[in-house]
Design a protein that fits this description.
The chain has helices spanning about 5-15, 40-45, 85-95, 140-145, 155-160, 165-185, 200-210, 230-245, 255-265, 280-285, 290-295, and strands at about 50-60, 60-70, 75-80, 100-105, 110, 125, 215-220, 250-255, 265-270, 275-280. The protein is of the alpha/beta class. The strands form two sheets. Strands 6-7-8-3-9-10 form a six-stranded mixed beta sheet, with helices on both faces. The model is unreliable at about 1-40, about 155-160 and about 300-305 (pLDDT under 50).
């Protein structure tokens, strides 16, 4: 292995092991079924998500500078970069938390200056956050079922009194939540308070809450932050299973380069708010600009100006 990319190879070998992905998955984790489109067909599909010239600044500090990005249906698309590169800012633009100064977000054929956060779930988008955002005083089941609150049609009085429509909705939502808990191997803790679970399980509960609404696009903001190597491998396996089982498109931000290299179909690399590389894991692993960014060496853009 060349010296320049030794750090990437070492991280990948120490954290990501392909055989782990074949262990401990639900029975639904099956190879591609007959009739499903091959990978080449997915590559030819129109992008589910496109970012066009996204620019964002905070008080004169550039967070994102003319970032273009496309995400194909059913791919795991990673965004990596050193601390402060603009990764979370990009996720916040995609999910409508931030309104970009320039550019557009295109979801299917719809173009947005700012994605409407109040309609995010109805647009088929769900996300997790860097920090846990669970209701720690509620059960795991109730936390996951809360991901379906946007589908509730009964009024407040009906929910308090447990009237017919409210009761039916609650039964349906809890049934769907139980399916996701079983898929993510959380059924044994369904009735425990979320705040009493180990950190790694809480992160999985958060994934379940995002997944219960059956999103087409799942945004994962550092889902493995703070985990042990074993927990990261488990979470990576579940992320891949989500894509394979539900045909969910995944956009992943993750600091652990080893996990990203083993899990992603394509990777975009940000540095100081600019996209400096975009390609397959092999292409990214051997890109000198990426190596320089992670080793703290100043990169140059195509015009020779420092980034």
């Amino acid at each position: 292995m060349p010296t320049a990319n030794y750090a990437f190879g070492a991280a990948e070998a120490s954290v990501y092991a392909p055989e782990i992905l074949a262990q401990g998955l639900p029975a639904s984790r099956l190879p591609m079924q007959e009739g499903e489109p091959p990978a080449s067909a997915a590559e030819a599909s129109p992008a589910l998500l496109r970012l066009e010239g996204i620019g964002l600044s905070f008080g004169g500090v550039v967070a994102l500078a003319d970032v273009d990005l496309s995400v194909r249906p059913r791919e795991i698309r990673a965004i990596i970069g050193p601390n402060g590169a603009g990764k979370s800012s990009l996720i916040n633009v995609i999910s409508g938390v931030y309104r970009p100064d320039r550019g557009r977000v295109v979801l299917d054929a719809a173009r947005y200056v700012q994605v409407p956060t109040q309609r995010l779930a109805r647009l088929g988008v769900a996300r997790t956050f860097q920090s846990l955002a669970l209701f720690k005083g509620l059960s795991v089941l109730d936390n996951v079922a809360s991901g379906l609150a946007f589908k509730t049609r009964s009024n407040f009085a009906g929910q308090i009194l447990g009237l017919g429509r409210s009761r039916r909705e609650q039964t349906e939502q809890r049934g769907r939540a139980d399916q996701i808990l079983e898929f993510l191997h959380l059924s044994e803790v369904r009735d425990r308070l979320a705040g009493t679970l180990p950190y790694g399980l809480q992160k999985r509960v958060e994934l379940a809450r995002a997944l219960v609404a059956e999103p087409r696009l799942l945004l994962l903001d550092e889902p493995m932050a703070g985990m042990t190597a074993g927990e990261k491998s488990e979470m990576a396996a579940y992320v891949r299973a989500v894509r394979d089982r539900f045909a969910t498109t995944v956009v992943l931000i993750e600091h652990d380069v080893g996990v990203v290299m083993g899990l992603s179909d394509r990777i975009a690399v940000l540095d100081y708010g600019r996209k400096i590389a975009d390609g397959t894991p092999d292409e990214i692993r051997n890109d000198q600009r990426v190596i320089d960014a992670y080793l703290g060496v100043a990169s140059d853009n195509d015009d020779g100006a420092g980034i």
